[in-house]
Amino acid sequence: MGSIDLLGTQARQLGVPSKMADGTEYLSLSMFIAEEISSRENAPLREVELAALAAGVIPEHYVRNFNSIDIQGQINLLSSKLALVGLGGLGGLLIEAFARMGVGHIEAADGDSFEESNLNRQLLSSSQRVRLSKARSASLRVVTINPAIDCAAHAEFVTEDSLRAMCHGASVLVDALGGLDNRQLLQDVATEFNIPLVTAGMAGFSGYVATVLPGQPGPASFFGSGSAAEDSLGTPVPAVYTAASLQAAEVMRILAGQAPALDNRMLLFDLNDMSFEKIQIA
């Protein structure tokens, strides 16, 4: 296996001078060259990308992340692990976003399979994938988007023990559950592992997103369990995509090394009148 210095040197030698959309010059590493280095040096593709970034070479896959984040932020993303619970409406969108932004290790779980009623909003579903495991669909999707990512998608509903195993070494826990059940468990385990929880929910055209810091109250502290408003109001695709996008933005900030925008706050949105409001929850 090649050393980081050797991989970085090869990336610099094979990098191509390029310009970003704003005219900023940089050395670009195409995925084809990265895969060639990976194969030649018997090194994981993610290690090649990390070495390239450390040497100041930007894998072309991530160039449009700049300059919203810098090289260190992209290194942080590729070096990070997150835990994601749920691979349906929110989770399918989120795991795609995490793979595209370059989160290095994704640990995900969902014991459900696709139904026809999921087709209105769940990105990983299709008419050909009805009855397919959501975890299997997620794994297939991630590897086609970003083969440098380590993704373990488990076809099981989380328990206390399995959730703790998923959170071991993670920097953030992401709640993509539907309904209200088990959300308090996620909040408690995130506190146990001293990591933030990024959570969301929606019903009809409205919803919320919150970042719960360890030991602080979150939406689950107030909403409890049982039936949820989405059971009567439905989950149309605009609200699901809005909530997932807001969650992805928070996770990207956290993993890249920036402060969360919703630290112990909840962002409420209503697409009926396009209103957004932040409230303090801790």
From TrEMBL:
GO terms for biological process, alphabetical: cyclic threonylcarbamoyladenosine biosynthetic process
Protein name from the UniProt record: ThiF family protein
Single GO MF descriptor: tRNA threonylcarbamoyladenosine dehydratase
Domain THIF-type NAD/FAD binding fold positions: 64-281
Pfam families assigned: ThiF (PF00899)
PANTHER family cross-referenced by the UniProt entry: TRNA THREONYLCARBAMOYLADENOSINE DEHYDRATASE
The organism's place on the tree of life at top rank: Bacteria
Cleavable signal peptide: none
